[in-house]
Prior knowledge:
Blueprint: E1 3-4, H1 7-27, E2 33-38, H2 43-59, E3 62-67, H3 74-86, E4 92-95, H4 105-111, H5 123-130, H6 139-150, E5 159-163, H7 170-178, E6 187-191, H8 198-202, E7 207-210, E8 228-231, E9 235-238, E10 245-248, H9 253-259, E11 262-263, H10 270-290
Parallel strand pairs: 1-11, 2-3, 2-4, 5-6, 5-7, 7-8, 8-11
Antiparallel strand pairs: 9-10
Subunit structure: Homodimer.
GO molecular function: methenyltetrahydrofolate cyclohydrolase activity; methylenetetrahydrofolate dehydrogenase (NADP+) activity
EC number: 1.5.1.5, 3.5.4.9
Amino acid sequence: MATDIDGNAVASDVRDGLQDAIDTLADAGHRPGLATVLMSDDPASETYVSMKQRDCEEVGIEGVHVEIDPEAPAEELFDAIDDLNARDDVHGYLVQMPVPDHVDKRRVIRSVAPEKDVDGFHPENVGRLVAGDARFKPCTPHGVQKLLEAYDVETEGADAVVVGRSEIVGKPMANLLVQKAPGGNATTTVCHSRTDDLAAKTREADIVVAAAGVPEMITGDMLSEGSVVVDVGINRVDADTEKGYELIGDVDYDSATEQASLITPVPGGVGPMTRAMLLWNTVKAASEQTGVDVDLP
Ligand code: NAD
């Protein structure tokens, strides 16, 4: 049986570690500010945004929320973006995805001022990450890196397989693992929906990061004994629960835990880290924009 990686505990350590930095910035008259922009009435997006606002409140980051009617012309969103780019009290912000079909998503990503782009999706920030000069590491892969570090998982020289090649998880995750830097130096393979014989790849891996969005697709027989398994997947499946659904990962936990040495549960693994690293990026943004030096955990 593998040991569970406790994402709630590591996320709580990250938040505690940010507290000094937030206090230092606030004492200097620059309380960090994070804005969320929502142009959607999708309940899941509404929940994500309200969780981010609650996280801010808990650590003393000033939360700002902007809501745009999903039926409104795209220019209303771009005006709000211009406004946030200009505000001194907002050091970081994000536009909750997905945006409606009539809004050009790529233009949204390009319009966010790179120094306030705490999601790390702007092409300038993607380029800097790939070049080994990251400004903001995207929150989920950064959180995975912190989890591996917290559990002393050696990435240097390890064979790592990332399942998924999205812009927000798979690609930046692979980029971080392959960098010549602490938490990197892994021999990294990226698998995706067109990969031939996925199991043959994952069986060779010391570290598997599953980010495909396919419920329980990684089973114990696809893993090598003693491997480290990080399950990024959050899949909502119908279930006989109060809410009518449950959240399950991309890894079949019961069979995987028999093979792995360390494994992240869902929930309570990567999810809390994604939220903590958004706060981390916001504090970094505030420090860089105000010139107030702080130590980041
Ligand atoms: P996505 O749909 O954008 O990308 C999925 C990727 O998986 C694609 O690149 C695709 O090629 C690959 N894929 C799909 N089916 C596959 C298969 N059968 N075999 C191999 N590869 C396959 O999804 P995403 O935004 O990267 O998110 C992935 C999962 O992670 C989702 O469940 C999402 O909800 C979850 N997620 C969790 C967090 C978190 O904080 N824990 C954050 C972001 C996303």
